[in-house]
Amino acid sequence: MNNENRKIRLGILLSGGGRTMVNLAEAMARGALEAEIAVVVSSRTAVGGVERARGLGFEPHIIRVKDHPNLAEFSTRIEAVLEEAQVDLVLLCGWLCRWQIPLQYENKVMNIHPALLPSFGGKGMWGRHVHEGVLRRGCKVSGCTVHFVTNAYDAGPIILQRVCVVEEGDDAETLAARVFEQECAAYPEAVRLFAEGRLEVKDGRVHIK
After folding, report:
1. Are the C-beta atoms of 154 and 162 separated by less than 8 Å?
2. Domain check: are 99 and 116 in the same one?
3. Distance between CA 12 and CA 10 in Å, rounded?
4. Last residue in a domain, options 105, 121, 137
5. In terms of domains, do 122 and 163 share one?
6. CB 8 within 8 A of CB 195
7. Cβ-based neighbours of 186, under 8 Å, separated by 6 or more
8. Active-site residues: which are they?
9. CATH number, domain at 174?
10. Are residues 208 and 119 in the same domain?
11. Fewer C-beta neighbours within 10 Å, C or N terminus of the chain?
């Protein structure tokens, strides 16, 4: 990807606290990830991610579903902001809104899901709901999945996964904390592989070169 010997430009989409964005920014700051945040978009006005973005020096674009008459116009607004910022890769960082991904962003939008897809994915499976589902089924392991995003929920090609143990006595909060530790390693690694041009999608599968 980085054929021009420059840092890839990231577009961050968030709907919540912004911890994933901060983790990525910290990886860049310590030299573990050759990338830069070009733009931040929030689907909500009053969330921690807005203030965290400002703390990193970015004034986020607030693009709310309810301010647009339909999905198409909502998606077009997001696309316009990303295009203006000349984004190479879009990262969903706790983004909870559906948007129509345009063709030029095929295999250029990533998400991190707090479970081992394809288990515990799909519509409505986010945050606490995921961890409660894992515990309800009595799973012995959980973890996280970084995948390319398509216009179907959690169905895009899997880039990488990291695993953690589900311990006796876990609740959704304690399991979430352990999974987030794995997310903090997995997402920067996936972005690094993209930046190095090492991800190839063939027949719906991601191959790491």
Report:
1. no
2. no
3. 6
4. 105
5. yes
6. yes
7. 112, 144, 146, 160, 161, 162
8. 113
9. 3.40.50.170
10. yes
11. C
Split into its structural domains, the chain has a count of 2
Distance CA 93, CA 173 (A): 19
Strands (E), 76-138: 89-92, 109-113
173 and 123 share one domain: yes
Domain finish residue from 88, 105, 122? 105
Residues 4, 45 within the same domain? yes
One domain for residues 121 and 153 = yes
Task: Assess whether 97 and 116 both reside in one domain.
Answer: no
**Eight-class DSSP state of 172:** H
Task: Walk along the chain (209 residues) and give the pLDDT tens digit of each residue.
Answer: 445 568 999 999 999 999 999 999 999 999 999 999 999 999 999 999 999 999 999 999 999 999 999 999 999 999 999 999 999 999 999 999 999 999 999 999 999 999 999 999 988 888 899 999 999 999 999 999 999 999 988 899 999 999 999 999 999 999 999 999 999 999 999 999 999 999 999 999 999 99
| Stated pTM of the model | 0.94
Domain of 43 in residue numbering reads as 1-105
Omega of the bond prior to 118 within 30 degrees of 0, cis?
yes
Phi, psi of 65, rounded to the nearest 5 degrees = -55, -45
Which amino acid, residue 176? A
Contacts of 119 (CB under 8 A, 6+ apart): 139
Structure tokens at 125: 């499976």
